[in-house]
Amino acid sequence: RCKEFVKSMRAQLQIDAERRAAGLPAIGQGSLHMVFSGNPGTGKTTVARIIAGMFASLGVLRRGQFVEVDRSMLVAGYAGQTAMKTKEVCEGALGGILFVDEAYSLVSGERDSFGREAIDTILKMMEDHRDDLVVIFAGYKKEMGTLMQSNSGLASRFPTWLDFEDYTSKELMKICQNMIGEAQMKFTAEAMELLLMAFEKMEASAREQLENGGADDPAARPSNGRAVRNLIEQIQRKQAMRLSEQTRPKTMDDLTTIVEADVMPCVRPHF
User: Fold this and answer.
1) Model confidence at 177: pLDDT above 70
2) What is the distance between the alpha carbons of residues 37 and 218, in angstroms, rounded to a whole number?
């Protein structure tokens, strides 16, 4: 869905540019502010960076820089300081995209006046620089919904809401292969089969936990790119340990192949 969204947005912006060049009014470029919801490691930041580059290349944004912030970079400890701090951050993002990660943390309760001050400042900057600033709020789906309801002016200013689903087992396997391929390495068939089985078991375990009403820790799920990256690093360390104990000269195949013995210690806890 994310790829389709980016593709359709590019098409609309390109057609609008051609319409303007032909003396016609643009028909698709309304507010470009967005909400990205989903668990950690599902590609929200990556897609936001791609969109920043796309907007710059199409002339939608004059600079196209990508400024990523969280609550700690917007909220100050004393009354009045938050507005100045947030405004300074927004000014640095002019001409590009301001990406607020874990945006829901800006409001931690009804009495969180500092967080609300940050949001009000962002909204004002969005209004004052409507053609020179795109804001993306990102975070968990449920928490982002709560944030949008906490301020009557938020939902109307963020017309695009994009959900980032957790990766499936096969998608995780593809990510693994791409990461290993970038390092000019490869899996044996047995190692690939073991990894896929592990992903399927982890996915089933997380689903069962949710169905049984258990506590959910989205950041710890295997179904995100960050967890896969960590797993690949563990597997590479196991391969390095195995090769360091090898007495015979190492061949190119030795150096570039991940075998089942490298994978098993890293996925055993999930079996």
Assistant:
1) yes
2) 12
